Amino acid sequence: MRKDFLELVEYTVSRDMGVMINTNGWFVDADMANRLKEIGVFHVRVSIDGATANIHDSIRGGKGSFDRAVRAVEHLKNADIPLVSIAPTIMQENIHEIGELIDLASRLEVSEIQLVQMTDTGRGKKENIITYDDVLMLKTLVDDKKQLYPQMRISASEGISTDKPFKEEVRLGDISPRIMG
Question: Is the pLDDT of residue 171 over 70?
Fold first, then answer.
């Protein structure tokens, strides 16, 4: 939304501050991905809320947003951004696709998929919030998918998984806590 976005990112990186960008992917083309790599962005997370265009586009309110988000992931991977991940917001509208969404993340060869639970703040509505039974189902699903895809980190909100993004890497000293915001 800001025309000076890249300048702000470049300034932040130049001050030895870690930068992790969350994006819907709409404006991430090959040129943008390469520019982010040149600047030194370490991690870009793309919001993909459905395993299919039908669900994702419905949630995001824009036809074609799924295809653009998937292409953004591909552009970021091709630009060799060190960490490319996706982060769906789990709600009643997409909970039935979470298994397929994890499968999509593996096919896209992302570093991580971080499942985030919808909260009833902002645009979140109480009727969209997942239930306790949903959380238990997701916990089993996540545990099963972790066995299937050991090359990809699958992290999630409290209750679904105890695996927090990069917790182990920070503990081992492989990644500085500064990338965590």
Answer: no
